[in-house]
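To whoever is covering the structure queue this week,

Two jobs came back overnight. Logging them here so there's a record in the thread.

Job A:
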Amino acid sequence: MEIGEAQKLSWENKNLKGFNTTDVAFEFGLLTAEVGEAFTAWRKGLPDLGEELADVFLYLTALAEMNGVDLDFEIARKIEKNAGRSYERNGHGALVRTSDA
């Protein structure tokens, strides 16, 4: 399934079921909660990590839809941008961007 198709289907489901489609701040809060649930599933080795990560994605697509963002396009553009960047480790071992190429 393509990202754009998932975004469309997720949005249709939200509308059909009467979920939030207008309150962006609330949707960001729900996304944050889902990230926490995914982290807990990973930390505890629970079998539903994949489902929790899918929930994160679905809330993210809803936020994109609420804000008129074509997530498929933006992800492809960001991957291309990231591919041209260079990084080096600093004295603390953290990766620091050295170029945007």
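Job B:
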Amino acid sequence: MSGRWDKTAERAFLRGADGIVALQARAQDSGEAGREVTTRLLACCFALVTHEDIGTELEEATKLLAERRSGDVTDAPGGRAWLTRVLGERANRHNERHELDPRYDAGYVDAATHPAWTLLALPGFAWRLRLLQAETKTTTVALAGGLGTGAHHVARWAAGSAQPSPAQREQLAGVFGIHAAWLAEERDDTPEAELYRYPACPCGNDAPFTCAALADAPGIFHGPVLDNNGPVAWCDGCGQPYLRDSAGGLLPLPIADPPLAVDRYYRAACADNGGLGMPWPHSLWSPGSSTHTRGDLRVPPLLTMPPRTAALPRRPAPAPEAKRPRKARRPGAQPGVWPEPGSTRTTQNKVRALAVWVGGTGRPLTSTGQIRLADARRLIDTLPTGDAWVEVMGKSSFPTRSSASLSGLQRLLVWARATGLLRTGDGRLEQTAEAARLLDDEGALREAMFDALPRAAVALHEWAWVRSPLAEPEILDTVLGVVWETLHGADGALTVSDLADEIWGVVGEEWRFEHQSKAEELLRRDVPILLTACQDTGVLRLNGKKKESVVLTQYGRTRTAANCTPSLVPAAESSPPGASAAAAGDDALAEVGWVVWRLEVKDPRQLAGDNLAERTEQAMTELAGSLGCQYDHCVDYDSLDGSPEGTYYAWWVRVPQAEHQHRGPDGLPRAVTALHHHLRTVLPSSLTDWSIAPDGDLTTRVLADAAFKEAYADLVEPLELALLGLRRDGAENLDPWVNVWAHDEQMTGATYALWLCSNPDTQHGWLVVYAGYLAGDRLWQTPLGQNMRRFGVRPDTPVLTLPRPGQAMWVVQAETARIVPEAGLLDHTGARHQWTGHDGHALADRVASDLRRLWPHLA
């Protein structure tokens, strides 16, 4: 069996499928022997499509064949339809077992695109023509020359798009050297069972038979076990193995690669069977007198005589009135549903058209709550949404597999839901009770969109895989206030970059982030997204081809003059001195098992002293443990920011969900309040500028870290255990970490890193161990892979993905990494050592042993 689909695989599949159809249609004549042969043929066909081992496919074929009902197959079209169905069931099991993704995994079997289903859809004559060409080694050009017609005519016959006339069928039979009755039109629907069931071996050698046992498992290379009463009968002349049915007929057994339950009897004396890749049954297409060579095949005597089996009656063509009428092509636009031709295609216009399209009866959604692909295909063209149905990256193209990846369409859905036009319920997209009023009043719809601006903006910014500061409602409210105030005071249009400077000037002053420079980068990245959302409501306008400047519209000046922008931030609650209220958006963490809380205090005069992290670590660890929590770490930001004004300290602690919900009068979990009180006894009493809130980003990272480590436990756990005693120089205090870099609807990409020790050969250098598998080019060419590369993940770095690939070669790399102190980054430019293996435990032991030899100071 070939590892890929090619001409050899196509011919082998056709041979196996033809035998299955023939034996299934005459199952009552062949009994248990026929079922055994059919099972093995079915296993061969499955293996050609899924590339699984023969043993696995033999089990699957047995299960599916046992579910067959009598009467399922009575003619060739029925047999091909049955085989199409069971092959589809097998493909689904294969994809689910290995958790294969249709966009990235080469092993995914797609019934819509795989050539096997194209072959099964061919008519009976096309099958017979292809098989005869393969067995007689007659090319299309040679066949057309013998017929005196063009090669394109023969190609169309083989493709099933045309049928030869009765006279051409007789000519074809003459060219092949067979009796004309075999290609008669009335035999197109007749399974040729007599080509797979004989009274005697058709090789014509009249040689005796040797009996043998039928092995229970594939891969028996030492030859069959001789047994005078065994069910397998080997022809000593041609080497073909048979099973005898209840009537004494001989059914040829297929030989797969590796051998399927039987092996050739005498390799030296028998012609090379070659499995289904060679003409099969071997005995029928033997080369003649010599059994030691494989030369030109003679036409079997069986085909030079008229068929013994009577032809089945042709299926009656459906009456003209019974044919389904051809559907008229839908127009590109419909008055009252789509924006009228020539009208301005504003976002408000498109949102209204989308709601009208949904209608009062609603539209069905997929099982994942997305718009169906057929509907999405029409919507992106007729609204239009600006989405591309087929995304092209370099030389690769990626067709849309889910409407969730169509950002323009999803944007309109965000607005429709935020304004209250549409809702999702019971697997359908439906209009709300408020929709009728808004659709009839354009002014009311515009006001509803402006009122929904904060909700829509938060939803749009949550799409970014790295959470934007603008996704925090409190920060977003502040930013909108800065936008209105700045644009009101500007003389004319203002550049987007200048407006971003004004926004960061306020946000950077009011909020402190874990990485201030990174927060600024993300905010500047997302300011254009926010301004586009504001433009959707009609309050401002972006100018220029690149949208580089912005100005308030007349409606916007009137609407924002009173500073009446809706807010998502609830009214502030009172809290005890020194602690802030819980962060807005806390409800989003209600479903997670553990929530990471952050306790932060500003110290502009640097009164806390040195080594604060070390001084508080033991007490915070013990106190958090006694409260059922887990202390994580402390960061002294004076070590990264040299300015005294930027000095502040932060502690992180993991709180279980039950304790997270157990709030005190101050709105904080009681355990967090106790930790805060302890820190206030350690720090100078003059430090009162505290900020205490859940850290949503770190909570998400912790959850992702746990999810990946659980999914890859057979790789990660043995590696961490093997390297436990080797870590040095403070690396033993750093938890091995899974960093999530990018995700989409189908997959999440990450890397696993374990810090080993400092590198004595380089300044600021460390040895870092990475583990995972090497992804192919197909992943790196997708938007997910491009995003990972944008953040410095190289294609030769081991990666982890969810869902986990079905089969992968594990890769462990030990690499010299240099720390860039001013950026807090790793520069992966050093030497690299790599290990590979399928078993995580054996691989971990080998890595640990080799690391001791490479760096003796680890031992």
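Note for Job B: The two ends are 48 Å apart (CA to CA).

Please reply-all if you pick these up so we don't duplicate work.
Q.
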